[in-house]
């Protein structure tokens, strides 16, 4: 191949390379959609900054699983970190079969509330109304945001409506409630001492009405209808204090909304995917696990069920141990429970086929540890869990395998 290229001449080589590069660039360019072609509500002009847009990044068809995420980059409501908190994140999502929609929303001082909220709500509605064309499932549309974009995403999660069913615009007929939420080092409160003053000023002005400040302090607006949420932050974030994520997580817990929070010991504000940090970059793996456990990474519609039962070892109830159900379908969430006095229960799991792993932690005195737990399942047991009801199982094992961690 090298000899052929050398013989073909510099002109042909240059043309071939440029052609390939051009094709690559074209393939990588996202589709850009103007959310209000006739002009956004409250628009003060017709310039680029007056036009909210979505940049659409779709996964390869063989990877696509029907899940979508509207991504809100940060920037203090004055700028947009569209690359490392937008495009790079959308590409990461694409590799996992998720469609990414990077939002260009309106910014201060030219625009203040409610313009950014209108933009993100419009984006969620747009994805839903175009779901079939985009290969999206309408009830698998999440929202994600970083820093001030995290405030916008959390605002979308706590201020939503079901749509106007009689609206002439089909987009306005769609619900603006996201199905799940992902927040990276977000601004949450506009009222507390740990609020980000720059974001508050850009969004609400110098002397905002206190009722509006309260309304957009999103830790105060969480209800049981707020979607399941994943958060990550660093403990020493000097830009947006970690108390923002702590407050939102506490509010989610109080409202009994499923939530997961990861606080890393150290790391600067605005890290995006954090590829340069061995520790902090782990947040993406944690997110992928969370998305998988929520059923967002499988193409199939998951049917909920539950399973409970008994576990015996050597003919006696297993005093203390752990059971894990590993799905045959890699896109399904796994199941896990403690075994106490021979009994276990997993109240929510997807129907399907699972491989069983069981560890005996009760045969070690005085206290069992993971290092001396004994794997007793022999690796060959499978369970078929039926949808829509109780799955009662009885498992019995012999201790004839070596200890494993």
List the helices and strands and how they pair.
Layout: H1 2-8, H2 10-28, E1 31-34, E2 53-57, E3 68-72, H3 83-95, E4 99-104, H4 115-129, H5 131-134, E5 141-146, H6 148-158, E6 181-184, H7 197-204, H8 210-215, E7 229-234, H9 243-254, E8 259-264, H10 282-293, E9 304-313, E10 316-317, E11 320-327, E12 335-340, E13 343-350, E14 352-360, E15 374-375, E16 382-385, E17 390-397
Parallel strand pairs: 3-4, 3-5, 5-6, 6-7, 7-8, 9-17
Antiparallel strand pairs: 1-2, 2-4, 9-10, 9-13, 11-12, 11-14, 14-15, 14-16
Helix pairs in contact: 4-6
What does it look like?
The chain is α/β, with parallel strands linked by helices and 405 residues long. The chain folds into 2 domains: 29-293, Rossmann fold (3-Layer(aba) Sandwich); 304-397, Carboxypeptidase-like, regulatory domain (Immunoglobulin-like, Sandwich). The chain is 26% helix and 24% strand. It is built from 10 helices and 17 strands. The strands form 3 sheets. An 8-stranded mixed β-sheet has the order 1-2-4-3-5-6-7-8, sandwiched between helices. Strands 11, 12, 14, 15 and 16 form a 5-stranded antiparallel β-sheet that branches. Helix 4 (115-129) crosses helix 6 (148-158).
Helix content: 25-40%
Query: Count of DSSP helices?
Result: 10
Total count of domains: 2
In total, the number of strands is: 17
CATH class of the largest domain: Alpha Beta
Largest sheet: 8 strands, mixed
Report the structural category.
alpha/beta
Whole-number mean pLDDT: 90
Task: Name the CATH superfamily classification of the largest domain.
Answer: Alpha/Beta hydrolase fold, catalytic domain
Radius of gyration equals: 25 Å
The secondary-structure element order is HHEEEHEHHEHEHHEHEHEEEEEEEEE
Low-confidence stretches: 1-27
CATH architecture of the largest domain: 3-Layer(aba) Sandwich
């Amino acid at each position: 191949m090298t000899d052929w290229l050398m013989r073909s001449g510099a002109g042909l080589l240059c043309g071939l390379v440029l052609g390939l590069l051009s094709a690559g660039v074209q393939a990588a360019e996202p589709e850009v959609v103007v959310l209000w072609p006739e002009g956004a509500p409250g628009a003060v002009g017709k310039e680029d900054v007056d036009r909210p847009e979505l940049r659409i990044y779709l996964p390869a068809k063989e990877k696509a699983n029907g899940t979508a995420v509207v991504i809100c980059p940060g920037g203090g409501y004055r700028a947009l970190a569209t690359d490392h908190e937008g495009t790079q994140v959308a590409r990461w999502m694409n590799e996992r079969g998720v469609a990414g929609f990077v939002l260009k929303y309106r910014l201060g001082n030219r625009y203040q509330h409610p313009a950014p909220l209108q933009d993100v709500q419009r984006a969620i509605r747009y994805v839903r109304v175009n779901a079939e064309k985009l290969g999206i499932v309408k009830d698998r549309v999440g929202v994600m945001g970083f820093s001030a974009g995290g405030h916008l995403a959390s605002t979308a999660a706590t201020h939503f409506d079901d749509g106007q069913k009689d609206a002439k615009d089909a987009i306005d007929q769609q619900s603006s409630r996201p199905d799940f939420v992902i927040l990276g080092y977000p601004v949450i409160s506009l009222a507390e001492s740990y609020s980000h003053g720059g974001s508050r000023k850009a969004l609400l002005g110098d002397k905002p009405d206190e009722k509006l400040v309260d309304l957009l302090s999103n830790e105060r607006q969480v209800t049981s209808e707020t979607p399941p949420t994943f958060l990550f932050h660093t403990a020493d974030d000097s830009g947006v204090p970690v108390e923002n994520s702590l407050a939102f997580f506490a509010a989610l817990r109080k409202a009994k909304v499923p939530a997961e929070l990861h606080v890393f010991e150290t790391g600067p504000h605005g890290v995006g995917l954090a590829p340069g940090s061995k520790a902090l970059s782990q947040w993406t793996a944690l997110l992928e696990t969370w998305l998988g456990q929520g059923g967002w990474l499988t193409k199939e519609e998951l049917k909920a069920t539950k399973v409970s039962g008994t576990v015996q070892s050597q003919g006696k109830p297993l005093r203390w141990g752990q059971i894990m159900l590993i799905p045959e379908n890699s896109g399904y969430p796994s199941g896990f429970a403690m075994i106490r006095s021979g009994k276990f229960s997993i109240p929510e799991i997807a129907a399907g086929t699972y491989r069983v792993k069981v560890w005996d932690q009760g045969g070690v005195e005085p206290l069992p540890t993971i290092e001396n737990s004994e794997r007793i399942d022999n690796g060959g047991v499978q369970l078929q869990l039926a949808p829509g009801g109780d799955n009662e199982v009885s498992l019995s094992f012999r201790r004839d395998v070596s200890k494993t961690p």
